[in-house]
Structures are given as structure tokens and as C-alpha cells.
Design a protein that fits this description.
Elements lengths: L1 H18 L16 H10 L2 E7 L5 E8 L6 E6 L13 E6 L5 E3 L3 E3 L1 H6 L15 E6 L13 E2 H4 L9 E7 L8 E10 L3 E5 L11 E6 L2 E10 L7 E6 L2 H11 L3 E8 L8 E5 L8 E5 L1 H5 L5 E9 L9 E6 L11 E5 L4 E5 L9 E4 L8 E5 L10 E5 L6 H5 L4 E2 L2 E5 L12 E2 L1
Antiparallel strand pairs: 1-2, 1-4, 2-3, 3-7, 4-5, 6-7, 8-18, 9-10, 9-12, 10-11, 11-14, 12-13, 13-14, 15-16, 15-18, 15-27, 16-17, 17-25, 18-19, 20-21, 22-23, 23-24, 24-26
Helix pairs in contact: 1-2
Keywords: Signal
Protein name: Serine protease
Organism: Trichoderma asperellum (strain ATCC 204424 / CBS 433.97 / NBRC 101777)
């Protein structure tokens, strides 16, 4: 839907926002949309919020936007770091979220990128400081406000691609004018530079746009690629935003308790087999295997930990669960090493690769009615043949405690089978520890 709109989106939606068209429907009901453009307007107005705040003086304004991170504790707003702390390192006061429809909410919890705070007060700040000009506002989860807290999507494989997979244009949506106006404006912006920051041309300088999402239409979805934080001084000048790199995304997951960072992934043992079966990668090999042992034995190994992160997040209104990626966290695995797990059901193996792609994403499905969290891993998300897809299986090939006692703890142990198929060797449910 969105990708089809992108051709005519540039003029139509900007002109509508410039006219200040408001939604006169009842706020407690989902509207009946007459057109795709009405739907886009509703989605943006209930995703992007106005921020009002001060630093001990006159009221100031900025923009923030919800992102659909799978946090069970928070609804998450991204914004510019300088909306949360000023040059004198004074933290924001009286921070208020202004929603479309005149509802307000006071903020009590927020986070600022630590690297950005390090640069404050320095006369000659390095140009890289804009890479870290971001923060989050954390609102307690409230399903009753879900229609007012929608949230854009994010595809990490797109964001960490140096060329953004060839994308040349983006949108910047926010509340300009600087005096508290609730007119949402969307500007079409050709991208002019890429890296850890995003550069683009804006039509004019407007106070209050800092913290706006820089977003694109990708795979039919509204997908955020950055956070606007530097407005040009004159018409046609270059604006700058923080790109949502892997470093930024990992920080967001840490702040919001989304995903599983530095965790071990295993099939749990039982009464007859007290050992767990851990997913691992050998010290000198790129093929996945398993390690057999207790939790305490696994803690002494350096090749069993992963970041299991929600790398493909759909917009809230799509009603789709996030897709996850596994990143191997062995101590010797640097940024230039092969760290991303590529699942290969056809060859009954998993390997490490150096570039994250959408084919590496999996569904992580929590098993219901189990006290301790257990998960199924389904690969891929939507098979081309219309089936349910392949499941990961970990197995120990019948090894018992005697084998473990004499050091036989590593085994190939990785396979795949049809989703929910029972007659296959290995466990199909896993825990994350």
C-alpha cells in the first residue's frame, strides 16, 4: 500500500499538512478510511508527537515519534538528544508529550545517548557528535492508548547497508513553526550523504522539527532510517540526522528491554538428561554445532552467547510480530568478522556470514501455557510455497552424562524440520538464558 503511494506522496501529503487539515472523527473509535492517503494521515498523526519542555526557562518545542519495539514494559518514543539535555548539560524539565487530539502526558523516564553527553560543553566538538544526538522517552505500556501510540517500523538489514540498498529519497515528518503548532508537516528529502549520519535537503528552516523521523517506504512499509537533529539555516540547505545504525539499535534494545542481548540459546535438559543442548559455533569453524552441559559449564565457554534481536520491526498498524536475527558474540568476533547467523534448512546447517540480510530473519514464537519461557524458531517468516516453514532442531544424538564426564561435549547437533512435525530427532522448543 505505501510503496504504491510513494509516487504521488510528495506533493499531496505535504499540501494537506500545510493546510492544517484535522481529523474530526471520534477519538475513541478506529475511523473508516476513504482513501489510502487518509489512512497514512491517521497513522502518522498517531505515531509522531509534539514535545513541550524547558531547561528552567521559556517553554521549547520538539518532535518525537513512536517506534514499534517489542518491549513488554514500555511504549517507546525516539527523539533528538538535544531535546532532552542542553549544551550546559542541564536535563530537560517539565517534559510533556502532546498528542494529536489535544491529549497531554507528562514524562518521568527518558534516556540520552551517553556518547552525546560526553561532547556537551566542548568548544570544538568533533563532527561525529551528530551521530549520537538521540534519546528515548519511555512511557509505561498502556494498551488502552494503543491507537495513539502506533509506531513506525525498522529493518536493521536496510539501516546497516552502506547504501541503504540504493534508496535515494526519504521523508521527514514533524511539528515545525516552533510555537507549539499541532500542524504535522511532511517534507520530501532527496538523500545527499550516508554513513553514521544521514544528510538530506530540506525546503526551509523550521524550529521544532528536531527529533522527527527520517523514514522511507521499504518493502511496502513505513520504515524509519534516522532521527532529524540539525535543521539547515537557509532554504535548500543540508539537514543532518542520526542514522539508526547497529550501534544505535543495540542501545535502543538495551534501554527498552527488547530482544535478548549476550544470551545463551539451548534446548533444556530433563529428568533423564540433566544437560542442556546449547547452540554454539566451534572456535575454528563457521558451521553451527551444539555444546552439551549444565548452565554453569556453559557460563565458562566463550562461544555460546548471541544477541537475539528484533531486527525487522513492522509498523504497529500491520499487526505483525517482529522478526529476529542472531548475532554471534564470541569475544574474538569483531565488526569485520563473520558474526550473523545464516540458517540453511536445505543443507541442514547454520553458518556465520559477515552481512545481515532479510533471509537471515526468523520468527521467535513463545510457547503458550509454559511457566518458564520456551520458544519455537521458525525459518523463514513466510515460505514461498505457502507452507509454514522450517523449524530449528537441536539434538545430542543420545549422548548421556557419561559422555559428558569424559569430555564428549561438542557435537554437530543442528537440523531442521517442518513446523510442528513430531517425528524428527531433536528438541523443537528452546529457552534463552
Amino acid at each position: 500500500m505505501i510503496s504504491r503511494l510513494s509516487v504521488e506522496f510528495t506533493n499531496d501529503i505535504k499540501l494537506e499538512y500545510a493546510r492544517g487539515v484535522q481529523c474530526h472523527r471520534r477519538e475513541d473509535q478506529q475511523p473508516k478510511f476513504k482513501s489510502d492517503l487518509d489512512k497514512v494521515n491517521f497513522q502518522l498523526r498517531n505515531t509522531i508527537v509534539r514535545l513541550q519542555f524547558d531547561f528552567g526557562g521559556q517553554a521549547q518545542y520538539g518532535t518525537g515519534f513512536f517506534i514499534n519495539l517489542p518491549s513488554t514494559k514500555y511504549d517507546v518514543i525516539l527523539t533528538a538528544g538535544h531535546n532532552l539535555v542542553n549544551e550546559e548539560k542541564v536535563k530537560v524539565q517539565n517534559l510533556t508529550v502532546l498528542y494529536h487530539g489535544k491529549r497531554k502526558e507528562k514524562v518521568t523516564e527518558f534516556k540520552i545517548c551517553p556518547r552525546y553527553e560526553e561532547f556537551l560543553g566542548i568548544n570544538t566538538r568533533p563532527p561525529t557528535h551528530v551521530n549520537y544526538d538521540y534519546g528515548v522517552i519511555l512511557l509505561p505500556k498502556d494498551e488502552g492508548q494503543a491507537d495513539k501510540r502506533l509506531g513506525l517500523g525498522l529493518d536493521l538489514s536496510l539501516n546497516i547497508d552502506p547504501s541503504l540498498q540504493g534508496l535515494r529519497d526519504a521523508f521527514v515528518s514533524g511539528y515545525g513553526d516552533g510555537v507549539g503548532s499541532m500542524t504535522l508537516r511532511t517534507c520530501f528529502s532527496p538523500l545527499k550523504g550516508l554513513g553514521n549520519k544521514i544528510e538530506y535537503y530540506l525546503e526551509s528552516k523550521e524550529q521544532g522539527m528536531s527529533g522527527s523521523p527520517i523514514w522511507v517506504t521499504h518493502d511496502g512499509q513505513m520504515t524509519v532510517i534516522g532521527i532529524h537533529n540539525t535543521t539547515p539555516e537557509k532554504k535548500g540547505a543540508r539537514g543532518v540526522g542520526t542514522r539508526i545504525t547497529e550501534e544505535v539499535f543495540r542501545m535502543l534494545c538495551l534501554w527498552t528491554q527488547s530482544g535478548f542481548l549476550d544470551k545463551r540459546f539451548c534446548a533444556a535438559g530433563g529428568k533423564t538428561k540433566p544437560h542442556n543442548t546449547y547452540l554454539s559455533f566451534p572456535q575454528n569453524g563457521g558451521f553451527a554445532s551444539v555444546f552439551l552441559g549444565s548452565s554453569s559449564a556453559a557460563a565458562d565457554k566463550d562461544n555460546l552467547t548471541f544477541d537475539i534481536i528484533p531486527a525487522y520491526i513492522f509498523p504497529k498498524w500491520s499487526n505483525r510480530s517482529p522478526l529476529y536475527a542472531f548475532k554471534f558474540r564470541k569475544s574474538s568476533c569483531g565488526d569485520s568478522k563473520k558474526c550473523w547467523v545464516e540458517w540453511q534448512p536445505l543443507h541442514q546447517k547454520a553458518v556465520l556470514v559477515d552481512t545481515l540480510k532479510d533471509i537471515h530473519f526468523v520468527r521467535l514464537i513463545q510457547r503458550p501455557r509454559i511457566k518458564a519461557a520456551r520458544y519455537f524458531v521458525l525459518i523463514p517468516d513466510i515460505p514461498k510455497d505457502g507452507g509454514d516453514g522450517q523449524e530449528l532442531r537441536l539434538y545430542d544424538n543420545g549422548r548421556d552424562q557419561n559422555d559428558i564426564d569424559i569430555g564428549k561435549t561438542d557435537f554437530e547437533g543442528v537440523s531442521f524440520g517442518e513446523f510442528k512435525e513430531r517425528c524428527i530427532t531433536g528438541s523443537r522448543t528452546f529457552m534463552i538464558e
